[in-house]
Amino acid sequence: xxxxxxxxxxxxxxxxxxxxxxxxxxxxxxxxxxxxxxxxxxxxxxxxxxxxxxxxxxxxxxxxxxxxxxxxxxxxxxxxxxxxxxxxxxxxxxxxxxxxxxxxxxxxxxxxxxxxxxxxxxxxxxxxxxxxxxxxxxxxxxxxxxxxxxxxxxxxxxxxxxxxxxxxxxxxxxxxxxxxxxxxxxxxxxxxxxxxxxxxxxxxxxxxxxxxxxxxxxxxxxxxxxx
Length: 227
Known about the structure:
This protein has helices spanning 2-48, 66-77, 79-86, 107-113, 122-150, 153-174, 180-187, 190-213, 215-226, and strands at residues 49-52, 55-58, 91-97, 100-106. By secondary structure, the chain is mostly helical. It has a domain at 2-151. A hairpin with a 2-residue loop joins β3 and β4. α1 (2-48) runs antiparallel to α5 (122-150), α1 packs across α6 (153-174) and α6 packs across α8. The longest helix has 47 residues, at 2-48. The chain is elongated, with a radius of gyration of 26 Å. Mean pLDDT is 78; it is low at 52-56.
């Protein structure tokens, strides 16, 4: 019976480990992609953009330049992906340009699409660079947090339990019957975390009682406690 309990907990910890390793891989990939995107973006600005009468224009070196075309094509090609990877950092709740006020303004997509036009001002370039830099640092911090979790078996156990508890909802997402946004809202609220914590505590308590008293005696005490 003891080995059965050890096996169950080991399996849950292993599931948590697999989940964390997969999460770490995705975060690292996002960080590397955004870093490359930022580097190309900054190189484009430094090489081909200059101030002209208060606005920023593409300079003479950029016109008909193969390097300019290469960098610009990369930035445009991966605009949607970069915008998505930035998450909430890439969406401004409100943003004013001239007399126009825009809601849910996609900073990266709108800035990149205007690189070759003269109506971009310095704050757009600087703001996008700052938001990309901040997002990359958030990815680095998130990766460090996951690496810390991998070293903690209790946190891995929590991840394993969370996977089992949310598995029915995950199946609905995989089958297309539920949107991922809905899934994220359900699984990331305090009640779900409370349920996971209760399950872990009950499991640990039951395991401890079993080890100390034996399985049969534990069942008998539970029956007596229930009524």
